[in-house]
Automatic annotation (TrEMBL):
BP-aspect Gene Ontology terms: carbohydrate transport
Whole sequence portion shown: 1 to 226 of 362
Keywords from the named record: ATP-binding, Nucleotide-binding, Transport
GO CC list: ATP-binding cassette (ABC) transporter complex, substrate-binding subunit-containing
Protein name: sn-glycerol-3-phosphate ABC transporter ATP-binding protein UgpC
GO MF term list: ABC-type transporter activity; ATP binding; ATP hydrolysis activity
Amino acid sequence: MTTIKFDNVGKIYEDGYHAVENFNLEIQDNEFIVFVGPSGCGKSTTLRMLAGLEDISEGTIAIDDQVVNNVTPKNRDIAMVFQNYALYPHMTVYENMAFGLKLKKTPKAEIDRRVKEAAELLGITDLLKKKPKAMSGGQRQRVALGRAIVRQPKVFLMDEPLSNLDAKLRVQMRSEISKLQQRLGVTTVYVTHDQTEAMTMASRIVIMKKGVIQQIGAPKEVYDFP
Ligand code: ADP
Ligand code: ADP
């Protein structure tokens, strides 16, 4: 059970730019929230504040009723997947997926169990001994997803995870990610500039423009279907 609450959250960058203002949102357990809006509207900034990768200038963010403004990223129990995969090129898929758990001193047998289970779920079992260099974009993105889910985080964050994939693969991965989220039941926040992606994946959509929320609602409520 994980809930997230943004209370009047804002971001002012060091150069004085007010990138996010008055951001208010309550996320329920197991929701799939999508932030959507044009490039530069503050989606990534908001996600990064939730992840702890960016200081929160104004307001508070709480995870399970605990304010996390001063909690380090490591202690927020969040896993994040990026557009560029951010895999370690010199490590095998197995090592990439095991790395975070090793740092947390998880017992070897437990690491092995979780990595194999995640690999099975993502259909990448036969890639475990390969290095990311030799893999396609879709395969790399699955490994990045695997690396995130082995940690069994409270919150799952994705920032434009499909933007580097070709159109066909993007459509396929959309439904794979949706299924994965439903299967795991993990509270998820997903950032995209793609309305179709938002519509097909979200339980609720947050539409942003110039740093402020324009609308919040289920896909049917925020977009007119033909
Ligand atoms: P989005 O994810 O919606 O594309 P971002 O959150 O990346 O938008 O950026 C929001 C705005 O903040 C943009 O105008 C961007 O140029 C600006 N911005 C992002 N990072 C910084 C930074 N480190 N310093 C100053 N401005 C920034
Ligand atoms: P996005 O794909 O989210 O639009 P960008 O290309 O805008 O990403 O930003 C990439 C990186 O550059 C981010 O770390 C962001 O914080 C930083 N950045 C973006 N805009 C600015 C800016 N105006 N000043 C300083 N850093 C910025």
